[in-house]
């Protein structure tokens, strides 16, 4: 098997993923700094979440409590924006939520980085790549399930916090990540077959 050239597709993809890897770290640091500044200066955060709802033209959503914040619903893209206080409980919840999402992104990017590096070295069929594909598949499937549970919890909180006149919130499920995870399980089986063929080839030499 001839070694891949530096200008091959795998080398280009490896460079792109490496760049994305460092951009993710820079983006994470930027978000932490901006989050701290927003909490110290404004004493509150503007929380924007996507929601699924029946078609409606109303935009302003009022809190059930008179002391609560007013939410603004963008009916074009289904984003609901409302303010939350920058207290300890809310900060911890935001850190757990966004930290988990950020960790999942880093795990997937790191595994892709290692897989593409092995492709660039012309060593794609190895046990580590099979494990890496499994990790990515589990992360994607787990993300889709956790996101679904998150949507259910947030929807119930919104219904108990805001008034949604003449509209009903609905639950959404991310099928894309689930299907990608299932496809990666199939790909790792292909890599497993390729590894067996590579081992048989070495034994016959």
From TrEMBL:
It holds the Pfam family DUF2975. Keywords: Membrane, Transmembrane, Transmembrane helix. The chain crosses the membrane at residues 12-37, 91-112, 133-159, 171-191. InterPro entries: DUF2975. Coiled coil: none annotated. This is DUF2975 domain-containing protein. It comes from Mucilaginibacter angelicae.
């Amino acid at each position: 098997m001839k070694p891949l050239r530096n200008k091959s597709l795998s080398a280009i993809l490896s460079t792109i993923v490496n760049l994305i890897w460092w951009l993710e770290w820079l983006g994470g640091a930027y978000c932490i700094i901006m989050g701290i500044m927003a909490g110290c200066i404004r004493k509150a955060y503007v929380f924007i979440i996507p929601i699924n709802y029946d078609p409606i033209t109303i935009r302003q959503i009022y809190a059930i409590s008179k002391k609560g914040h007013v939410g603004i619903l963008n009916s074009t893209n289904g984003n609901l924006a409302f303010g939350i206080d920058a207290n300890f409980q809310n900060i911890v919840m935001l850190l757990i939520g966004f930290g988990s999402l950020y960790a999942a992104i880093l795990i997937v990017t790191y595994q892709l980085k290692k897989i593409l590096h092995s492709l660039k070295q012309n060593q794609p069929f190895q046990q580590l790549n099979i494990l890496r594909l499994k990790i990515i598949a589990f992360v994607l499937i787990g993300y889709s399930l956790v996101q679904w549970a998150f949507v259910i919890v947030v929807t119930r909180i919104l219904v108990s916090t805001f008034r949604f006149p003449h509209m009903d919130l609905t639950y959404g499920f991310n099928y894309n990540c689930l299907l990608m995870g299932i496809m990666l399980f199939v790909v790792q089986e292909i890599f497993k077959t390729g590894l067996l063929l590579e081992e048989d080839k070495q034994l016959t030499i």
